[in-house]
Amino acid sequence: MTSSQRREDAIAAIVARTGIDEALIERLVRHFYGKIRDDAVLGPIFAARIADWEPHLQRMCRFWSSVALMTGTYHGQPMPMHAPLPVDARHFDRWLEIFEATAREICAAPAAEYFIERAQRIAESLEMGIAVSRGVMLKPGERYRDSA
After folding, report:
1. Is the pTM of this model over 0.90?
2. Strands (E), 54-147
């Protein structure tokens, strides 16, 4: 079996197990960022940086397609985009809270759990990367708190 066939089989197994497809990803992304825009904690951070939401939403659909279905349609570098943001553990907790609620609202349980597990890893990685970019080395289990 070729690597391409193994990849196709893996994607087919994900789809069969979770029901995730591009339409579901788009619904999740659009609902999630609709909530983010209205959120008192995260809304202002996004509003200060995003004037035209449609390109951002399309980029996030490609990102989640690549994360969830291994499509390879996203080619960005999230860390440099997030490193300068004025965020810490509290913001990532709020982001995850909204993401988890949205995933459970939009998706059947298998898909919701699949997305949430990946979102948790993404948030942890970004939080750690932001801490490192600010000269803070986190110990295992430690969270980044901005002292400013």
Report:
1. yes
2. none
